[in-house]
Design a protein that fits this description.
274 residues; extended; Immunoglobulin-like
Length: 274
């Protein structure tokens, strides 16, 4: 390959170097907890809403589904990025992942969020792969060729049915520059349905399932995660506001005491000299 040393100016070489650097991503943290921040107003539904940039993102690894037939050893999607808000009436999760193309036919891009159907007891959780007959899971499944997600209950690989109840599940998804961003907003007025966003300080199990239609993936041959956790953050403790005030008062008292000590020492020194 010929050298471009003489064909590019210094400024053009710097532009090329900065462009290449812009394509690289910093190594993402891999975490086990999504912190859902408390808001005092309505939750953002649009993935492009600037509010989403005000909450830290959590990154979760995905792997091919190799537990049951048909197995999938070469998944397209390796991780998801998640942000969340809640306001004690609803909860919203924004999930993003890299996917070069938007696919709806013949195979569809798909994102599924999985939760227990009720508050888990202790550390006990349903089976991570679509639950079981005795311990089902709730699914928020979104065929991204459709406008909104749909709720289901799953009792294992072959027992999935539509979930109905006094709740609503809305969403909005966009595909831009090789990336999907999908926002789920769940609301419920019933006590049974509101547990997902009413237990501040609680850790709620959550798992992810993503399919890349352009890679030939489907509901079973896809990328999956193990159980992770969603933490509902409450209002900040009063100590957050009280501690700076106490620190200022303590510093002032320490300064007064130091000044008095210095003055007494000077008075004693003057007395001894006289």
């Amino acid at each position: 390959m010929p050298s471009y040393l003489d064909g590019l100016t210094d400024e053009e070489r710097w532009d090329a170097a900065l462009y290449v650097k812009s394509l690289a991503r910093d190594k993402d943290r891999q975490e086990t907890v999504i912190v859902s921040r408390l808001l005092a107003h309505d939750l953002p539904l649009d993935p492009d809403d600037g509010m989403w940039q005000k909450v830290p993102a959590s990154y979760f690894p995905l792997a091919g589904q190799v537990v049951v037939e048909p197995r999938w050893y070469y998944p397209s999607i390796g991780k998801v990025q998640v942000r969340s808000f809640h306001n004690r009436r609803s909860i919203a999760l924004r999930v993003s992942w890299e996917d070069r193309t938007r696919d709806v036919k013949p195979y569809t891009d798909r994102i599924v969020l999985q939760f227990p159907p009720s508050p888990p007891k202790g550390e006990e959780k349903p089976y991570f792969l679509l639950g079981s007959t005795s311990k089902p899971v709730q699914l928020w499944s979104w065929d991204l060729g459709e406008e909104t997600p749909k709720p289901f209950v799953s009792r294992g690989q072959k027992k999935t049915e539509r979930l109905t109840g006094p709740f609503s599940l809305a969403g909005k998804a966009v595909h831009r520059e090789g990336q999907w961003s999908a926002v789920f907003v769940y609301s419920s007025d019933s006590e049974a349905g509101a547990w997902l966003f009413s237990g501040e300080g609680r850790y709620i199990p959550v798992a992810f399932r993503v399919s890349d239609g352009g890679w030939g993936e489907n509901e079973k041959q896809c990328s999956i995660s193990s159980w992770h956790y969603l933490y509902l953050q409450g209002p900040p403790s009063p100590l957050v506001y009280l501690m700076p005030i106490l620190a200022v008062i303590a510093a002032a008292l320490l300064e007064i005491a130091l000044v008095r000590w210095i003055r007494r020492k000077e008075e004693v020194s003057c007395t001894n000299e006289s």
